[in-house]
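Structure (tokenized):
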């Protein structure tokens, strides 16, 4: 019989470190998708950063504006 203490989610160590997600707020599709995911992030584990607002957002995280991402997601 399973008890609450034996459930996998009860014994798993939680990582509460916030993750950062960058998105293009100038793109209607991106905004719609991000709005959906923001609703799912009820515990606010994700920091949502709109890169269309300012270059400082990416600069602060060490991204080079002159270097293409070559289709990779970071």
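Design, position by position:
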């Amino acid at each position: 019989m399973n008890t609450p203490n034996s459930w996998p989610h009860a014994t798993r160590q939680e990582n509460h470190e916030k993750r950062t997600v960058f998105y293009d707020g100038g793109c209607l599709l991106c905004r719609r998708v991000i709005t959906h995911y923001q609703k799912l992030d009820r515990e606010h584990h994700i920091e949502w950063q709109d890169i269309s607002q300012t270059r400082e957002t990416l600069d602060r995280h060490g991204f080079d504006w002159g270097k293409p991402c070559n289709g990779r997601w970071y």
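Reviewer-requested clarification: Residues 6-13 have pLDDT under 50 and may be disordered. The chain has three helices and two strands.
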